[in-house]
Design brief:
229 residues, Nitrile Hydratase, Chain A, two-stranded parallel sheet, binds fe (iii) ion, mainly alpha
Length: 229
């Protein structure tokens, strides 16, 4: 993917003071009327709309480019995380590279992360990982597309830290008591990806078939993959 003025725009506000890549103002002034709560648009959303209109008026980007970019978020990006994890399941060397440097490993598969670091955290029989952004909605968009509404909700962001097992239960995920639950807090520079355990009964499956088992929620850590009976 080449870098164009549009790419820079689409990746958001990396250059502004608190370097977040989405539209909200939770960090400085908690405001119940922002995008997360379906209120009127926040300051950054208004700024980003104004910027888009200006770039269109100057002929730097077209509404068509914006639409195509948003389609990528909706159509292609959400599947890339599953492809990365399926590759890690079948290719031990790739998994080692993914754990060592997630950003570089994803780049091998053509996924350019929007943050400086991607930390891939592996679930094991003893440890289950969950991802949150307690401040807002930092999320590995290049791998999972746009974050779901529940991920951005105050309910999830505040509760998952204090009662992760209760939150997991609401997603239908019951973990044995001996499993340690680790909650990872994302931020502008650092995104996380959960690498779930490959389910038993998938021996010999192709990478593509394995990817079909993996959903977005599993890569955030709120559910776990199972082989359909
Ligand atoms: Fe955030």
């Amino acid at each position: 993917m080449s870098t164009t003025p549009f790419d820079h725009y689409a990746r958001g506000h990396h250059d502004h003071d608190h370097a977040h890549d989405h539209d909200h103002d939770d960090h400085q002034q908690p405001n119940p009327a922002n995008e997360h709560d379906n209120g009127p648009p926040g300051e950054y959303e208004i700024m980003s709309r104004a910027m888009q209109e200006l770039l269109e008026a100057k002929g730097i980007i077209s509404a068509e480019q914006v639409r195509k970019r948003m389609e990528l978020f909706d159509e292609e990006f959400p599947y890339r995380g599953a492809q990365v994890v399926a590759r890690a399941w079948v290719d031990a060397a790739f998994k080692t590279r993914l754990i060592a440097d997630g950003r570089a490993a994803c780049a091998e598969m053509g996924a350019l992360l929007e943050a400086e670091r991607l930390i891939a955290v592996e679930n094991t029989p003893d440890v289950h990982n969950i991802i949150v952004c307690t401040l807002c909605s930092c999320y590995p968009r290049a791998l999972l597309g746009m974050p779901p509404t529940w991920y951005k909700s105050r309910n999830y962001r505040s509760r998952v830290v204090f009662e992760p097992r209760a939150v997991l239960r609401e997603f239908g995920t019951e973990l044995p008591d001996n499993v340690t639950v680790r909650v990872h807090d994302s931020n502008a520079d650092m995104r996380y990806l959960v690498v779930p355990m490959r389910p038993a009964g998938t021996e010999g499956w192709s990478e593509e078939k394995l990817a079909g088992l993996i959903s977005r929620d599993m890569l955030v850590g709120v559910t776990v993959p199972r082989v359909p009976v």
